[in-house]
Amino acid sequence: MRCSTRGGGAANVLFAAGRELRPWRDRSDVQEVMDRTLALMSS
Q1: E strand map for 1-43
Q2: Mean pLDDT of the residues in the chain
Q3: Cα–Cα distance between 15 and 42 in angstroms, integer?
Q4: Residue 37 CB coordination number (10 Å)
Q5: Is 5 among the domain residues?
Q6: Tell me: the pLDDT tens digits for 13-32?
Q7: How far does Cα 19 stand from its chain's mean position?
Q8: Is the pLDDT assigned to residue 2 strictly greater than 90?
Q9: What is the count of structural domains for the chain?
Q10: Quick one: average pLDDT of 32-40?
Q11: Would residue 37 count as lying in a domain?
Q12: Is residue 2 part of a domain?
């Protein structure tokens, strides 16, 4: 059986990375990474 959607595992990895980066969320470089990640996921 094939799934009709792809990338479900990638979303889990991205959210896990976001949780790992949370202590440094005030840094501009981390904010940029998170902004780009959210933009990629919303497109």
Answers
A1: none
A2: 83
A3: 13
A4: 15
A5: no
A6: 888 988 999 999 999 999 99
A7: 9
A8: no
A9: 1
A10: 89
A11: yes
A12: no
